[in-house]
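Changelog note: in this version the structure field was regenerated for every chain. One regenerated record is shown below for reference.
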Amino acid sequence: MRRPLVSLATAVVPLVLLSGCGSVGTELRPGTAAVVDEEVVSMSEVDDVTDSLCTVLVSQAAEAAQPGAPAASYPLGVVRSAAQRGLALNIAADRIAEEQGIDVSEDLEAGIATVRNAYQGADPALVEEAMPGFTGDGHLELVLTAWGREDLGPQAAEEEARARGYELGAEWAEEHGLESNPLFDSLAIGEGGVAAAREDLSVPVSEWARMAATPASQAEVDEVTRDLPANQRCDG
């Protein structure tokens, strides 16, 4: 059964960076944003995805805005965390899929195509570069649900397979490693999702993307970004 795009495109990311604080986590080498099964996600990779994601979100908002409306902006910490999280979770999904012989390429490509369609007003090359920020959690969920189904058998219901998959994913992360730079919230595969260290300060990045789609919801974004200094805003 194909899961809807919202599952693929959802990434829970921390607002904690807006205050300049991060979670207590593993001390990694300078320039390292995350390490997944010994594969490094560099800060430069995160910065590149962040730049593209900022531009995509802002350009989408600009296209939908009323004439004369102020330029859209987003909390840079949220967007940057989405980039880091997405890059790390895509690696985890690829590693698990390879180890377990799981193929979710059809569902993954369907979800990616929907993201592309949702951001037709943005530069297609930038949408591709920003894609990790939209796909990390959903890609991992596709893989873990397939793994759970294989473990339980074809008779298992979708939610049963999903729950079992996250149990297996948590065991995999414990064995192989899913480490996050303390500048970002920690990433922990748990029951039904990947939790940030401070969920009370988390927001789905897809919510920010949906806010960008309509002028009315842009006010919600502006409420958060209004008092942020320029270096903490994503202005495209």
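Spot check on this record: Strands lie at 12-14, 32-36, 39-42, 74-75, 178-180, 187-190, 193-196, 202-204, 233-234. The chain is about 55% helix and 15% strand.
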